[in-house]
Write a structure and sequence with these properties.
Blueprint (H helix, E strand, L loop, with lengths): L15 H51 L10 H5 L4 E4 L11 E10 L2 E13 L2 E10 L16 E10 L1
Antiparallel strand pairs: 1-2, 2-3, 3-4, 4-5
């Protein structure tokens, strides 16, 4: 009886090269998913801070405007808003709008984030006053200027009018 020479095939399995290629592909997928999650969380935080700054500017402007024309120069956010949010007078803050009379600067803590506001006003006519609110915050935490001051690299500006 004659037998054919057959090659004996090793048991089916994966080679070392196949295993290494699978590890590389899985690693790239995991790193990509982690990066996506990191940047989406970072963008969500930025969006939350921007919408909070817009709400703060609107709240300050509407409360200020609600006092009426005669009392706009007497607006004091810590006295008017302290039960609702943490507001305090501050030396730091964004610049006042050019051509406006400064009222004051304030530091506001909301949603575990720190914001600064600068309020200023200008008389347009005998019975019309422009109210300007600028709210600033740190877009990237931990950033300070060369002089060591707090770096407020993001701002939201809101202007409204009050008539006599």
């Amino acid at each position: 009886m004659k037998t054919k020479n057959r090659r004996i095939r090793p048991l089916a399995g994966m080679t070392l090269i196949e295993i290494m290629a699978a590890i590389v592909i899985i690693s790239i997928a995991v790193i990509g998913a982690s990066g996506y999650r990191y940047y989406s969380t970072l963008d969500a935080r930025r969006a939350t801070n921007q919408s909070t700054a817009a709400r703060i500017a609107l709240l300050l402007s509407e409360n200020w405007r609600g006092l009426g024309y005669d009392r706009t120069a007497d607006f004091d956010p810590p006295a008017h808003l302290s039960p609702d949010m943490d507001v305090a007078a501050s030396e730091a803050g964004p610049d006042y709008a050019e051509g406006f009379t400064p009222l004051n600067r304030y530091e506001i803590v909301a949603n575990n984030a720190q914001f600064w506001a600068a309020l200023s006003y200008r008389d347009e006519a005998a019975d019309l006053r422009t109210l300007n609110t600028v709210v600033a915050w740190k877009g990237r935490p931990g950033i300070t200027s060369d002089s060591g001051d707090i770096s407020m690299d993001k701002t939201f500006k809101l202007t409204t009018f009050v008539a006599d």
